Amino acid sequence: MPGNKLNQKSASKHAQQLLFSEALQHKRLASITTNPQTSSPPTESTTMAEKSHSTTMDRILQEITTVSRRIEGMDASITSLTLETKSMRAEIAGFQSRVTGLEQHMGLVEAQTTMSRDRDQDLLYLRSKLTDMEDRSRRDNIRLHGIPENEEGVDMQSFLRSILPKLTSLDFDPPIEFQRVHRVGPKRSGNSSRPRPIIACLLRHNQTRQILQAARKQGPFQLDQHDIRITADDSKETNDRRKAFLALRPRLRQLEIKYGLFDPARMWVTKNGVSKDFYNPEELQLFLDSFQPQSMDSTSTSGSHDNGGDNEGNLPP
After folding, report:
1. How far apart are CA 214 and CA 309, in angstroms?
2. If you ran DSSP here, which 8-state letter would residue 280 be given?
3. Nearest CA-CA partner of 223 in 281, 170, 160
4. Which of 289, 285, 283, 234 is nearest to 262 (CA)?
5. How far is residue 245 from each of residues 251, 283, 288, measured CA to CA in Å?
6. CA distance 53 to 11
7. Which residue intervals are annotated with compositional bias (Polar residues) in the record (predicted)?
8. In whole angstroms, how large is the CA radius of gyration of the chain?
9. Strand, helix or coil for residue 79
10. Element (H, E) at 222
11. Of the residues 144, 188, 208, 242, which has the fewest C-beta atoms closer than 10 A?
12. Global confidence as pTM
């Protein structure tokens, strides 16, 4: 921009010099024409020529003045444009600085988001491990629901040791032994019709499995006209997953998909000869959504296969 400004100034000065040179030349001609020593006395034609020259010079001077004013206006405009250009450059530099700052901030946000996502995955993994450890620590436990309060008398272990073979129709050899037995929670006040469940931790795991299998096949049991249900003592997270799997059974039957629910909370399904295991109800839901739903009128249960573990009796009430 400064180079353009200098070129325009030099061009304007050159134009002024040319105009002044032309004006001086006309003035010399006029002086030669009117000089009494070198010419004859002025005539009418000479006077007209002088007037013509004078008019031409006045017009040239006016044009020179106009051009000079225009050049001055152009100089002012160039100066203004130069200032505006400097201001725009400063604003652009400020914008670039802001963009750089935003890019750095976005990089930090992305890094924090990645760290947060990794932390969430780690928490989910740790939670699943804790749930698995809790379930393993409870795998020798059974829960008995529906036994009236105080029915066990003063020795609950002896009471269970006598009724469990009768309820399950199993012969235990060696006899059942318990590590600990107790009711869950504080005693309910008043004449509550819902007794507290009993948790029993058996000494031998194979006897625990026998009782739970019999409970799935035969339960609920009858004891003095009371319905007795025996379930596994799984963690709350595992029970919630089992209930979510059981809620999908109508959809599985509608799609004629064979299925089975296994301990602690694993759904096995087979469709068109292909079998899959699901440990998460949400993943099973996505799998079912991939099939075109059939009409409710054509719903059939012939394709379902309820495994021994698929029984609501295995869940706490």
Report:
1. 11
2. -
3. 160
4. 234
5. 11, 10, 12
6. 27
7. 291-305
8. 52
9. helix
10. strand 221-223
11. 188
12. 0.55
